[in-house]
Design brief:
Blueprint lengths: L2 H8 L2 H18 L17 H4 L1 E8 L2 E7 L3 H12 L3 E5 L2 E4 L5 H11 L1 E8 L3 H18 L4 E7 L5 E9 L3 H9 L4 E6 L5 E6 L3 E4 L3 E2 L6 E7 L1 H13 L11 E5 L2 E6 L3 H9 L4 E7 L1 H15 L8 E9 L1 H30 L2 H25 L4 H25 L8 H31 L4 H32 L2
Antiparallel strand pairs: 1-7, 1-16, 2-4, 2-5, 3-4, 6-7, 8-9, 8-13, 10-12, 11-12, 12-15, 13-14
Helix pairs in contact: 1-15, 2-12, 2-15, 11-12, 11-13, 12-13, 12-15, 13-14, 13-15, 14-15
Length: 485
């Protein structure tokens, strides 16, 4: 290839952009962070299919019920909670989440006694509760230092989350079960003098924790919690002994989870006055106003529960992929990709019999896969379904490059620049329409909670977008410069 041809190729900004993205992708995969023992896969996030590990799927001992009643919804929910001896949350004006398992027949009887009727019944939890459970599990996973972990909620069309699935690459079943059952050490201490603190009570003294709510008569968000009798007495004794009831500002209450401070604040004047005369079991921790206050309240709720899930769960399924099998899958996936690339190259060469067409096609395809992996390294684990998506992108990419090549060739050669541009834009229009249909078809899989199929859809959509906006325009410039020789 002559210098003039190289200049013609790399003077185009689309080719330069593709080259920069390939370089960035290789650096992100192999050199950031710097390591010399990464192997072929570098820093790519590998799922348990390719690395070995365990998965566990949890169901919920709770239900979401759509109801009808002539009573006020809030008072109806409170009455029903007392009758069922369970935590009942009002999800919508006509939907309740009951954080305890009852059959539909048992609920229908309780609803009738409370002055309502059951319209629809689904076992599971609401979307907000599912998000809380997901955050709790992710927090536990991070505290354990487990790498390449994934927590997915599996929801139905109604928005009720029926299952949650935990995937831990490089871990065993026992570790996965520990993530579900392990609770942290929660402690409340009181400031004595300076930065010194004294123990007041542990988390086992907390009998219940409410969801975040605004405190009556103010815009402050807070989390209410209840102490047992022993905890309430220990709390009052500490407040009296260290002077927190007389000088709250100098004796803050400090909450710790696994010895890390998660909340610190003085007693409110009202609480200090109540503690002077009697024990107080129901307390509330204020976290602030606005969205930031709500966010802090949600985090504090999790900490007060000491990592306990808000609803009881049961193991609906589990599995384990041995490390040796994961390594085998990894090897076979790499081999499948290479064979697919070679097969594509042979077919393209058989059609055109021209290296100046075949080599740019294969090179563009490789560049597209490298860019895809470089982006996926930050947002998506690669499991067997994602690998299938990459191979699908490889095949559809060649299809689109063939469309461009057939469209722009004019009687076996390159037409004039103006005609070439018209033909190239027409080919690109065909490709954009085809890519749009692929993206639309994949969107439901990408948005719905379908576990590994979601990875297939995300990788496919990413590959299609990279092709349309980056590699196809660059290929058009490269093929024109080469064949114009």
């Amino acid at each position: 290839m002559s210098n003039s041809t190289l200049r013609a190729v790399f003077s185009d900004w689309r080719v330069v952009l593709m080259t920069i993205l390939v370089a960035f992708s290789l650096i992100s995969i192999y050199f950031v962070p710097l390591s010399f023992n990464q192997g072929v896969t570098g820093n790519l996030q590998l799922g348990l299919d390719l690395e070995g590990g365990a998965w566990i799927q949890l169901g919920f001992n709770s239900e979401v019920v759509r109801f009808d009643t002539d009573r006020d919804a809030s008072s109806f929910a409170a009455d029903l909670g007392g009758r069922l001896d369970a935590e009942v949350l009002l999800v919508d004006e006509d939907r309740l989440e009951i954080r305890k398992y009852y059959t539909q027949e048992e609920l229908e009887a309780a609803f009738e006694e409370a002055g309502g009727t059951v319209v629809a019944y689904e076992r599971g939890v609401s979307e907000s509760t599912a998000d809380d459970i997901k955050r709790i599990l992710e927090d536990k996973i991070n505290s354990l230092g487990t790498r390449d972990a994934k927590v997915n909620t599996l929801s139905g069309m109604s928005g009720v989350t029926k299952y949650i699935r935990i995937e831990l690459a490089g871990a065993d079943i026992a570790t996965a079960q520990d993530v579900v059952g392990q609770q942290g050490k929660f402690e409340i201490r009181i400031q004595t003098s300076g930065n010194a603190t004294e123990h007041v009570l542990f988390g086992d003294a907390i009998t219940s924790v409410s969801t975040p709510s605004r405190e009556p008569g103010s815009n402050l968000w807070g989390v209410g919690f209840t102490l047992n009798d022993e905890g309430a007495q220990a709390f009052r004794n500490a407040a009296l002994t260290y002077g927190a009831v007389d000088n709250p500002e100098a004796h803050e209450l400090v909450m710790l989870l696994d010895d890390n401070i998660v909340y610190s604040a003085p007693l409110s004047p009202n609480l200090a006055g109540d503690l002077r005369v009697s024990t107080v079991r129901s307390l509330s921790a204020s976290t602030g106003v606005g969205d930031e206050g709500l966010k802090e309240a949600k985090n504090l709720e999790i900490h007060l529960r000491a990592g306990a899930l808000p609803v009881d769960v049961f193991i609906a399924g589990s599995g384990y992929v041995p490390a040796a099998l994961g390594e085998h899958f990894k090897t076979m996936s790499i081999l499948a990709g290479i064979i697919a690339l070679l097969a594509v190259g042979v077919v393209v060469y058989y059609r055109y019999r021209e290296p100046l067409i075949v080599l740019p096609m294969i090179g563009t395809n490789i560049a597209e896969i490298v860019i895809l992996l470089g982006i996926a390294r930050f947002i998506q684990q690669l499991d067997l379904a994602a690998i299938a998506g990459i191979i699908a992108v490889l095949g559809t990419g060649i299809d689109q490059l063939v469309i461009i090549t057939d469209e722009v060739l004019y009687e076996g050669g390159i037409p004039s620049p103006n005609l070439y541009q018209k033909r190239f834009l027409r080919a690109l229009g065909i490709i954009v329409v085809a890519a749009s249909t692929t993206v639309i078809a994949m969107l439901p899989l990408a948005l719905m909670d379908l576990s590994s199929l979601r990875g297939f859809a995300i990788v496919t959509i990413l590959g299609v977008l990279i092709g349309v906006f980056i590699t196809r325009p660059a290929y058009g410039k490269v093929i024109m410069a080469l064949l114009s020789r």
